[in-house]
Amino acid sequence: MSTTTLPPGVNAAVPMQDIMPPVRARGGLFGFIRRNPTIAIGGLLVFLMVFIAVFAPFLTSKDPTALAPALRTREPSAQFWFGSDMLGRDIYSRVLYGARVSLTVGFAVAICASAIGLFIGLISGFIRVADSIIMRIMDGMMSIPSILLAIALMALTRGSVGNVVLAITIAEIPRVSRLVRGVVLSLREQPYVDAAVASGTRTPMIIIRHILPNTLAPLTVQATYICASAMITEAILSFIGAGTPPIIPSWGNIMAEGRALWQVKPYIVFFPALFLSITVLAVNLLGDGLRDALDPRMAKRL
Amino acid sequence: MALLEVDALQTHFRTPDGINRAVDGVSFHVNAGETLAIVGESGCGKSVTAMSILRLIPEPPGKIAGAIRFNGKNLLEASDKEMRAIRGNEISMIFQEPMTSLNPVLTVGRQIGETLRLHQGMSAQAAEDRAVEMLNLVGIPEAKRRVKEYPHQLSGGMRQRVMIAIALACNPKLLIADEPTTALDVTIQAQILDLMRDLKHRVGAAIVLITHDLGVVAEVAERVVVMYAGRKVEEAPVHALFNKPRHPYTQGLLGSVPKLGSSLTGEATRLAEIPGLVPSLKQKIPGCVFASRCAHATDLCTAVAPALEEKAPGHVAACHYALREGALAA
Amino acid sequence: MSTAPLLQVNDLKKHFPIHGGFFGGVTAKVYAVDGISFDIAKGETLSLVGESGCGKSTVGKALLRLFPLTDGQVILDGQRIDDMPSGTLRPLRRRMQVVFQDPFSSLNPRMRVRDILAEPIRNFGLAKNSADLEARLAALMDKVRLPRDAVNRWPHEFSGGQRQRIGIARALAGEPDLIICDEAVSALDVSVKAQIVNLLQDLQKELGLAMLFISHDLAIVEHMTHRVAVMYLGKIVEVAPRRSLFGAPKHPYTEALLSAVPQPTPGIQRQRIILKGDVPSPINPPKGCRFHTRCPYAFDRCRVEEPVLRPIQDAMGEGHVSACHLHDLPAAQNPLSEAKGAQLLAVG
Predict the structure, then answer these.
(1) Does B41 touch chain C (CB under 8 A)?
(2) Nearest alpha carbon to residue A102 among A2, A257, A239, A5
(3) pLDDT in tens, B99-155
(4) Hey, what's the signal peptide range on this chain (chain B) (predicted)?
(5) Helix (H, G, I), strand (E, B), or coil: what is residue B143?
(6) Nearest CB partner across the interface for A190, out of C64, C105, C170
(7) Which residue in chain C is spatially nearest to B254 when comparing CA positions?
(8) In which order are the strands placed within the sheet that holds B35-39?
């Protein structure tokens, strides 16, 4: 372009060169991964765990509950990939099936606690009278460590996956309601809500149309953290014998059984612990990624 | 030699969807003791220019190129240690938001004294005495009591005075003020502008004033740089700029601001509009950055970026047509 | 104007309680708006000016009944709306709409432009059928000079100025008689501000709208308005037609405000009044005249007795009221007796 002759009297500015290599703005899946590496990694690992949980029967030929007293506490080998426990059960299959319990509890608690917390938070954020009562109750619940609350609730019932979900959900509700209430209170101050009131929108529609959709992003992020913490709580409950019954293979149960042999047969504890850590990390990564991606302040910067 | 010379400054940022060319080839100079205003609308790169001078741009995602010579020394080649010795000492900065630029847990006296102890090795007592002196200088009554107060005990106007006191404590040669009065009410703004004018005579520091408010520019600046979309489009002494703007953007900007008293003089009842939007800085613009909104633009403007040319002594503009007398009706 | 005003406000008060202490009881009150009265005629623009914290935005929100009032009457076209139950009020809300300051937070990020504009139309039952709704949406986009097909886009796809246009379109959707512009152009860039100011003026002419223009920007106010009310610490200190207020301010605060605005004319000589100190807190406003702590002319009476708004003689026109004791002094001793707007603004 510099070679084109300019009309007399016209001077071109010295063209500026870019001082950094061009950014290749990629669309599609690849671009998404580049922009959101944490979501991609976290999502992939979570997907992997879900896959393992769903297809556990196809990934192992051994029954996780089959006893084989002759083959007790074998080291990891071609026969027992992760070794066998003191009853001769295959730890590899137990860990795979254990993913079912962990993920079920994690997802179920996340969904239930979010839904109930959302409901309570919305009421609390909109009805002043209810707010002071509800929030004092929530404060009371939050003053008990959630693991203790869950243990206490489990002590009232017999161990089953459903009861574990219930106990952890109740323990998680206060945090969600607080979050939703805070979001609702700040959303109520938004000019677009004022504008909706001024244009004659009724309160139920204000909540459905203007408040609820804007609560979902922070709630989704919170739900992932709840999911992660519920999986840990479930493992703790099972580990101390207050969770799922020992007959069901869950990571907490496997670790509890291997506890006594920790110094001589560490692999019994190691493999379920590794899976638990990876899953929790994956869910947390997903949560962090979602938080960054959904936060409107982070988007559209620069 | 000028106190500060900015030469072909480029500050680019890497973003997920392209390079943001926030500042793209801006040159200007500031003489000792002079007040230079940089005006433009949000996103024109004026604040980024100011931050670049002090090397306050995070790298990455940012990158600075060109030259920034302060007293002949290129700041872009200075080490971090050298930069720290310059910041707050020889060049200091006032920010827009007096609320967030002060540390809430330190007394005002500590914050003023800190720069003195850091840069000039003053004793604690000497620094506090100097802090009281500085508060007196910026017109804070009962300075002896106020040095012991915390920022939240002061009003917005007072906080901005404290910011100015901190900035001037080390007798800097250059003060960069980034929208110093934008967050303030008009009567408080008048106080601060009055103070800045007064201090300029007494302290003698050169000032780079970053603002979007043409009224403020007219009141305090001696020379003006007009920026648009990351480039300098015009530079002139303040009278020349307001009386005879050469760049169509400057003309549009001046025309779009109502003047107080218009109802008394019965001046125009409709404001001049600049149609359209500022172009995205993530696309490379080969021609004049203003061409997409300019009423006088031709094919030449969209194809070839105009060079800055001197139209009158000290008055430069980057426009293919500004140079031909009468081509643009003022 | 012989007909009844479109909007009449009598002794409006809004005090916000401050909760504190262990039991969250009311420990203090913010006297945000403390007894103000004004009226707006059909098709008229009244501007409410003042510095931050003077209560001008609270007035706007109080008129819209976004919160309950502490005291006072709001009469819209002969009907008292301040104590009306919200169900009865809802259809009347159509007549009074609002444009807010921040073009980003004033549009719900999760709604398309179409749904944002359709909300008031549906609420007030204005569209007969879906074809009518579409026609109305198109007409609204035309009115605010946005392309019609932009209704299918999301708010974040627009620039600040375009978003403000959408906000204006939403306000127009209910076919109001009065629009409250709460700092509607303050957050915009200079060149965009001019576009929106021009648009508002065109719309007012086209649709015969009345406007309450709440702003701190005196130059824009002067450009836009018919009359001006100046607020200080929750009170109106002066009301006057535009030319009277800018040409012959009759309150020391107005005078100082005018002289404080930087003029975009370098090197002009003007009379400057630089006020001392800051605006006192509305939690504990000064006794007597609220402005006496900063007033350059304050005398003993100002510290004890609160002045009331009363008509002031003005050569430039009728309808000038001011709340200042100086006007009880003989003209020779009253620094506000002569018209000196021109000196303050350095024009003419």
Answers:
(1) yes
(2) A239
(3) 778 888 999 888 888 888 888 888 888 888 889 988 888 888 888 888 888 988 888
(4) none
(5) helix
(6) C105
(7) C264
(8) B91-94, B174-178, B206-211, B35-39, B223-228, B231-237, B315-317, B309-312
Q: How far is B259 from chain A (nearest CA, A)?
A: 30
A11 DSSP assignment = -
Closest chain B C-alpha to C84 CA, distance in angstroms: 36
The minimal CB distance from C264 to the residues B215, B239, B277 is found for B215
Note the pTM of the prediction, 2 decimals.
0.87
Whether B141 and B132 have beta carbons less than 8 Å apart is answered as no
pLDDT in tens, A156-172: 888 788 888 999 999 99
Distance from C-alpha of C58 to C-alpha of C33, rounded to nearest angstrom: 7
Q: A239-253, B238-252, C165-179: lowest mean pLDDT where?
A: A239-253
Nearest chain A Cα distance for residue B269, angstroms: 30
Going from N- to C-terminal start, the domains of chain C cover 1-9+35-225, 248-348
Beta-carbon count within 10 A of C347 CB = 21
Which of A13, A19, A20 lies at the smallest CB-CB distance from B307?
Answer: A13
DSSP secondary structure letters along C214-236: EES-HHHHHHH-SEEEEEETTEE
Residue by residue, pLDDT tens for chain C (348 residues) are 446 899 999 999 999 988 776 666 788 889 999 999 999 999 999 999 998 888 999 999 999 999 999 999 999 999 999 888 988 999 899 999 999 999 889 999 989 999 999 999 999 999 999 999 999 999 999 999 999 999 999 998 898 899 999 999 999 999 999 999 999 998 888 888 999 999 999 999 999 999 999 999 999 999 999 999 999 999 999 999 998 999 899 999 999 999 999 888 888 888 888 888 888 888 889 999 999 999 999 999 999 999 999 998 877 778 899 999 999 998 888 888 887 777 888 775
C170 with A197: Cβ contact below 8 A = no
CA B103 – CA B163 distance, rounded (Å)? 11
Among C180, C166, C173, C75, which Cα is nearest to C125's? C173
**Distance from C-alpha of B205 to C-alpha of A278, rounded to nearest angstrom:** 59
**Which residue is it, tokens 């900015």?**
B6
C278–B270 CB contact, under 8 Å: no
pLDDT (mean) for A220-235: 92
pLDDT of amino acid B154: 84
Closest CA to B262 of C167, A263, C247: C247
Q: Is the pLDDT assigned to residue A300 strictly greater than 50?
A: no
The answer to whether the CB atoms of B261 and C222 lie below 8 A apart is yes
Q: Which chains touch C (3 or more CB pairs under 8 A)?
A: A, B
The one-letter amino acid code at C131 reads A
Q: Is B136 exposed, middle or buried (0-12, 13-18, 19+ CB in 10 A)?
A: middle
List the chains bordering chain B where 3 or more Cβ pairs fall under 8 Å: A, C
Helices (H) and strands (E) in chain C, counts: 11, 12
Look at the domain C1-9+35-225 and name its fold: Rossmann fold (3.40.50)
Helix (H) or strand (E) holding B65: strand B62-70
Please count the other Cβ atoms lying within 10 Å of the Cβ belonging to residue C43. 17
Give the residue from B174, B213, B231, B221 showing the smallest Cα distance to B46.
B231
Closest among B206, B228, B225, B219 to B91, alpha carbons compared = B206
Give per-residue pLDDT as tens, A194-204.
999 999 999 99
Alpha carbon of B188: minimum distance to chain C alpha carbons (Å)? 7
Phi-psi region of A4 (alpha: psi -120 to 50; beta: other; left: phi over 0): beta
Distance CA C181, CA C219 (A): 16
Query: Which tokens go with B121?
Result: 């090795």
Which H or E element spans position C123? Answer: helix C113-123
Cβ atoms of residues B55 and B76 within 8 Å: yes
